[in-house]
Amino acid sequence: MKPAVVDLPHVAARGLGLKRGDRWLFRSLDLNVPRGTFVAVVGPSGVGKSSFLTCLAGLIPPTEGEVRLHDRAGVGHAPGAVRGTTGVMFQNNLLVPTSSLLANVLCGRLGRHPWWRTLAGFPRTDREEAYRILCDLGLGTKVNRWACETSGGEQQRTAIARALLQKPELYLADEPVSNLDAYLTGRVLGILRQEAAQQGRTVFCVLHNAELVERFADWVLSFDPSGEGAWKLRKLTHA
Fold first, then answer.
1. CA-CA distance, 35 to 21, in Å (whole number)?
2. Which of 43, 143, 203, 206 has the highest CB neighbour count under 10 A?
3. How far apart (Å, rounded) are the C-alpha atoms in residues 228 and 29?
4. Whole-number Cα distances in Å, 62 to 33, 152, 217, 223
5. Residues in a beta bridge with 89
6. All structural domains of the chain
7. What is the spatial distance between Cα 29 and Cα 15, in angstroms, rounded to a whole number?
8. Closest CA to 31 of 55, 10, 5, 1
9. CA nearest 202: which of 79, 64, 102?
10. Residue 222 — pLDDT band, cuts 50, 70, 90?
11. Is the pLDDT of residue 84 over 60?
């Protein structure tokens, strides 16, 4: 059962627009996304999906409009204003190549402890949880390998594990299963959907496979490639 929260959208956007050069990636975008929702972000390459997630993360300012993220008490915050509440899964993974997979995953807990506490290593409970998540993602035998010694798919799963260990309120996943086979794709998206449905966390996930969208998403946000900033939001009904 989802945790009880105030009756406010988790992610609210008003008149949101982002322009690159003379081209609008999206414009006049209004969203009221309830907490615990899995939103699939779709559209052809170059249409602005990644830029939209970056805008939600507060890493780039919108050209117009605003985004507010409401916490579980109903207080609204600007994106990026509250440290550690947004977990971003970038396409380039941003791993430390000469650190182990376990060490890379533990970076998801850096915001939870004073800097001095981690000088001698992370607490045992953090290490055990990081190991468990890596095992869940099929990486239990490779936790001590350097990231640069692993495949692209293994690095992608490590970045996902890092975000899961962070336990954010909002997940922003940019093509998180692009390098994974069918089994691991279902495993990763199933975990993210479980985070939404059971933990009351919200997921925005860029996907290209229509079958996966229909299987895992609650809502679909589509961007139009016309360059006029058009978008469409559709709610799915699961049997």
1. 34
2. 203
3. 12
4. 18, 31, 25, 16
5. 173
6. 1-85+168-179+190-239 (3.40.50.300), 92-163 (no CATH)
7. 5
8. 10
9. 79
10. very high
11. yes
Mean pLDDT on 205-224: 97
CA nearest to 171, candidates 93, 64, 56:
56
* Residue 77: φ, ψ to 5°: -135, 150
Residue for token pair 């229909």: 214
**Residue 88 forms beta bridges with which residues?**
172
Q: What CA–CA distance (Å, rounded) separates 78 from 101?
A: 32
Question: Is the whole-model pTM more than 0.85?
Answer: yes
Distance from the first to the final alpha carbon of the chain: 19
**Stated length of the chain:** 239
Residues 6+ apart with CB under 8 A from 233: 31, 219, 220, 221, 222
Structure tokens at 168: 């954010």
Query: Where does residue 22 rank: exposed (0-12), middle (13-18), buried (19+ CB within 10 A)?
Result: exposed
Lowest model confidence (mean pLDDT) among 30-44, 77-91, 122-136: 77-91
